[in-house]
Design brief:
mainly alpha, rod-shaped
Length: 264
């Protein structure tokens, strides 16, 4: 199912402004249509319109809660994946210390480089470059692990290091899936936007039908709705916005590596 990558073309602040203006515009369109309809001899029932508007707003609230649940669960998944990756790298680094001296230092150097590259995923470095460099280091590490296994195929230390390195590679795939491909479905975004647009049009239509004056509360409601949408979009984008899963576990591992570096 297509994800929300297509929306990434719009920065979060642009998305906020576009949605705010679109909702206010649709509210005004609904108001004008309602004013035209109010001039007819047979007027629509106020009770019926109130029920329709209440239903629209209730459905909008449901869609907002549904969307927030989707992105918050995937945000938690990203945090868990970051922690698992840090633990896997730390284990591989510590087990590399049991390798022979001529193999230990190159492997640990590669693992330090690997952590630096993984931390760059939360920064401004292009994602393609980060992933390409990560896979290069994985290949180099695996080559050294194979060489160590050939030198001593029955060694428990080599076998344990190979297992931990395999876990690092597996968690890498999980992190790529959780961060880049496990996004909110585009269909959910389309329905959320559609329900929001129709809700504001219907509210404006009801006001125009009742010949009510324009209320500043409409702007407040539009701002509130768009603010929640912005929060959902922020949680859905791992590399943008103010809410991040956090790289603290990897940073802690990198600091641990610095402390153990003289023992290589």
């Amino acid at each position: 199912m297509p994800g929300s990558e297509r929306l990434d073309i719009l920065p979060l602040w642009v998305l906020f402004i576009v949605l705010l203006l679109a909702n206010l515009f649709l509210d005004e369109c609904g108001f004008r249509v309602g004013r035209l309809r109010s001039e007819r001899a047979q007027k629509e029932s106020d009770a019926t319109m109130s029920a329709i508007v209440a239903s629209e707003l209730g459905l909008l609230a449901f869609m907002l809660a549904f969307s927030f649940q989707i992105v918050s669960s995937r945000f938690d998944l990203r945090r868990t994946t970051y922690l698992n990756e840090a633990n896997a790298i730390k284990t591989a680094y510590l087990r590399a210390g049991m390798l022979p001296a001529d193999q230990r230092a190159p492997v640990r150097d590669l693992l330090r480089d690997y952590v630096d590259v993984r931390i760059q995923l939360a920064k401004d470095m292009p994602i393609d470059r980060v992933l390409h460099r990560s896979e290069e280091i994985q290949e180099q590490l695996w080559t050294k692990a194979v060489a160590a296994a050939k030198d001593d195929p029955h060694s428990w230390t080599t076998e344990s290091f190979v297992q931990s390195l395999n876990e690092v590679i597996n968690v890498h795939a999980m992190r790529v899936m959780a961060s880049l491909r496990n996004r909110m479905p585009m269909a959910a975004w389309a329905v959320l936007f559609g329900v929001g647009f129709l809700s504001f049009f219907t509210m404006g239509y009801q006001s125009g039908l009742a010949k009510a004056s324009r209320s500043p509360a409409t702007i407040v409601m539009a701002l509130t709705f768009v603010a929640v949408i912005w929060l959902v979009a922020d949680l859905d984008r791992p590399g943008e916005g103010f809410l991040h899963a956090g790289q603290e576990p990897l940073i802690d591992v990198r600091q641990m590596m610095e402390h153990t570096q003289p023992q290589n």
